[in-house]
TrEMBL record:
Transport found in the keyword field: yes
Topology versus the membrane: Multi-pass membrane protein
Originating species: Acetobacterium wieringae
Lineage of the organism: Bacteria, Bacillati, Bacillota, Clostridia, Eubacteriales
SUPFAM superfamilies: EscU C-terminal domain-like
Protein name: Flagellar biosynthetic protein FlhB
One GO CC term on file: plasma membrane
Length: 355
């Protein structure tokens, strides 16, 4: 069905919810290539140190081999242990830096997200059918082909490097140890550099694909977007009814204030404003209620039912309606006009009292 197609981009709420679940965008190849470049940079810095370690090991091993008549198992083990120690000492600084950079790079891509949702037990993780589906999914196939391509590239680079070195082997037998070690290290570094450059291209392509795949998975159907809006903003129909009810309650409260007014100024059907002034309490006349069109007519009707004076003044009624809020004092520029109105109110009341 067309309505069930995921055609809409993920909303901010959808992204936040997925992030809380631990579902964040991350390209492992970007992390890998950064680690390769870091390793290459560190190795370049450590070339003199590694060179000296390898040279010392080479000399020591050759001396031992030349001084013994036959190689024993224990002797070979000793040579292996010494070589492993040199390798460990040479690689340890690089390994420490790489581990630190790996954590930083993963954090940069995921925003250093720490969530326990990914650790919660989920049935589909142990369900054999789900596992088989994941194994034969398009994503798994892409990852497999990508891994095979990487291995093939590395093998090809190593093979071509060694193949190019074969003609030089006779010369290496009569060359000084220092030169041989430096030559081997140069070839190794050249090999690593080539791998880094190729993997950088792979990482760029992988980043683009992973971003596309991630955004595609986050897409929502039109119905999901509507449902989310209802959950976060509320059902539009219900909200409309609530607003209508609030307006009715506000109108009712305002109409209850009309009988307390001293005068209603009107224009004659479009605007109506209820004014009250208590010289002992108010700094200026106060607007108790105001309305336009049918609300104005209701204000006038309530006023007449409660014997509140009503005065027609088109200009003043419009000015009060447009410039003064309910329960607010009139501005200074309207003092004179309202003072004349209040004088009329007091005069009318006085006449009525005389009668």
């Amino acid at each position: 069905m067309a309505g069930s197609e995921k055609t809409e981009k993920a909303t901010p709420k959808k992204r936040r919810d997925e992030r809380k679940k631990g579902n964040t965008f991350q390209s492992k190849d970007v992390v890998s290539v950064v680690l390769l470049f870091v390793a290459f940079f560190i190795l370049n810095l450590l070339v003199p140190f590694i060179y000296q370690q390898i040279k010392n090991l080479y000399i020591a091993q050759m001396k031992k081999i030349m001084t013994v008549e036959t190689l024993t198992v224990s002797g070979v083990n000793q040579l292996f242990r010494e070589g492993a120690l040199v390798f460990f000492i040479s690689v340890l600084p690089v390994a420490i830096v790489i581990m630190f950079v790996a954590v930083i790079m993963s954090g940069v891509q995921t925003g250093f997200l720490v969530t326990g949702d990914a650790l919660k037990p989920k049935f589909n993780r142990i369900n054999p059918l789900s596992g088989i589906k994941r194994m034969f999914s398009l994503r798994s196939l892409v990852e497999l082909l990508k891994s095979l391509a990487k291995v093939a590239l590395i093998i090809a680079i190593i093979y071509t490097t060694i193949l190019a070195m074969i003609p030089m082997t006779p010369d290496m037998l009569i060359t000084k140890i220092d030169e041989n070690v430096m030559f081997m290290m140069d070839q190794t570094m050249s090999m690593v550099q080539t791998v880094c450059m190729i993997f950088a291209v792979v990482a760029i392509l992988d980043y683009a694909y992973q971003r596309y795949d991630y955004e595609k998975k986050l897409k929502m159907t039109k119905q999901e977007v509507k449902d989310e809006y209802k959950q976060t903003e509320g059902n539009p129909e219900i909200k409309g009814k609530i607003r209508q009810k609030q307006r009715e309650m506000s109108m009712s409260r305002m109409m209850q204030m009309v009988p307390q007014a001293d005068v209603i100024v009107r224009n004659p059907t479009h605007f109506a404003v209820a004014l009250k002034y208590d010289a002992d309490q108010d700094v200026a006349p106060l607007v108790l209620a105001k309305g336009k069109d049918h609300i104005a007519l209701r204000i006038v009707k309530v006023a007449e039912e409660n014997k509140v004076l009503v005065k027609e003044n088109k200009g003043l009624a419009r000015s009060l309606y447009e410039s003064v809020e309910i329960n607010a004092y009139i501005p200074a520029e309207l003092y004179k006009a309202v003072a004349e109105l209040m004088a009329w109110v007091y005069s009318t009341r006085k006449k009525e009292n005389v009668k």
